[in-house]
Automatic annotation (TrEMBL):
Keyword check for Transmembrane: yes
Extent of the signal sequence: none
Keywords for the protein's UniProt record, in alphabetical order: Membrane, Transmembrane, Transmembrane helix
GO cellular component: chloroplast
Composition bias type Basic and acidic residues, residue spans: 43-54
Record-linked InterPro entries: DUF2301 (IPR019275)
Chain intervals for the UniProt region annotation (Disordered): 36-62
Keyword Repeat carried by entry: no
Protein name from the UniProt record: Integral membrane protein
Bilayer-spanning residue ranges: 141-163, 179-198, 205-222, 242-258, 270-288, 294-312
Length: 349
């Protein structure tokens, strides 16, 4: 008998649910909203037996019809998934999820901007086809950012020469002039690392000039300016011979602007090629008066600003050059010979 008791209880539940559905359909079909007052129908079910007890003769509980309606709805309607509440042990809330989503969107936006700047055209180089990759875009942007940093630092430090004495801005600039010099030298060094020059020894020479100039600047400050409690820039202005130690940094800058003027035909770069060494040599030799030096310094500031600003108007591929040449230079000697033979064979065919 205990084997058939669960089946009897299940049948009662199903019969009760069917009766409820039939009554509801009849009411809807009759078109009436009000129902006669009747005693609530009672559905008798048994509590589930406790664990380990399967005796069928347990006391019955009486449930009102509304509870029976709910039970029938639970049986007939499909289940709905409730949203999970944030778990405190995971440390993830709706706010943090929103921040994570915004951060991922920001990374995707930055990557999409790089892809937009990258030129997907295939260019024909001397040693084969090449394209502009995202890494090329990053290098070019860093190269140009270094030039902007150098130009902005130089203009900020040099502007003190054109501001009347007694101005608070002059005192602020003079107190930070060595910081401007160090920042500009760092920006120039970054650009010299990332500059694209086909002839590698020329690139290494410009980098060596920068290193010598930086070492000379540090030595001049420690040996000359610091004992006198002066800034490096002020010491060089008062002691022109110090340019022998600081000057290689500006020689590297002259080489960079010469390369830009030669490759792209920029007028401001071509003029800077003569203005920079002219002003430095005039100060070193003592043959140039202060008025002339101030005029050349103003021209230097103006052209350097124009030069740095115009760099961002160029296409990315201009600062890359023929990428196949750099790819060829990076190959081992045996692979270089094999590639040259392959290209010669293709020309003959």
């Amino acid at each position: 008998m205990s084997l058939h008791a669960p089946r009897t209880r299940g049948c009662k539940l199903i019969d009760g649910a069917q009766r409820l559905v039939a009554v509801g359909c009849a009411r809807l079909h009759a078109g009436t909203r009000s129902a006669p007052s009747v005693q609530p129908e009672v559905v008798r079910v048994r509590d589930p037996p406790p664990e380990g007890n399967h005796h069928p003769n347990l006391p019955l509980k009486k449930y009102p019809k509304r509870v029976g309606d709910a039970m029938a709805a639970a049986v007939l309607l499909p289940p709905r998934l409730a949203p999970l509440r944030p778990h405190h042990t995971l440390g993830i809330t709706s706010t943090s999820l929103r921040h994570i989503t915004l951060a991922s969107l920001g990374c995707r936006a930055a990557a999409s901007r790089l892809r937009a700047l990258a030129d997907r055209n295939v260019y024909s180089g001397v040693y084969g086809p090449w394209t502009v990759e995202d890494s090329d875009v990053r290098e070019v942007l860093l190269y140009r950012s270094g030039l902007v940093t150098a130009a902005a630092s130089f203009v900020a430090a040099s502007s003190a020469a054109f501001i009347p004495e007694g101005n608070a801005a002059v005192d602020a600039i003079r107190q930070s002039v060595d910081l401007f010099y160090a920042t500009g030298a760092a920006g120039l060094g970054l650009s010299l690392v990332l500059i694209h020059i086909y002839v590698t020894p020329i690139k290494r020479f410009l980098q060596a000039l920068w290193v010598v100039g930086v070492v000379g600047s540090v030595g001049t400050y420690l040996a000359g300016a610091q004992p006198l409690d002066e800034s490096l820039v002020q010491y060089v202005l008062e002691h022109p011979a110090a340019l022998w130690f600081v000057g290689p940094t500006f020689a590297a800058l002259t080489g960079l602007v010469f390369k830009e003027g030669l490759c792209y035909g920029k007028l401001e770069a071509g003029i800077l090629t003569f203005v920079i060494p002219g002003l430095l040599l005039g100060h070193l030799s003592g043959l140039m008066d202060n008025g002339t030096k101030a005029g050349l310094l103003g021209v230097w500031m103006l052209l350097f600003t124009v030069f740095a600003a115009r760099k961002f108007q160029q296409p990315i591929k201009d600062d890359i050059g023929d990428k196949s040449v750099f790819m060829f230079n990076a190959l081992p000697e045996e692979e270089k010979k094999a590639l040259i033979q392959k290209l010669e064979t293709q020309k003959v065919e």
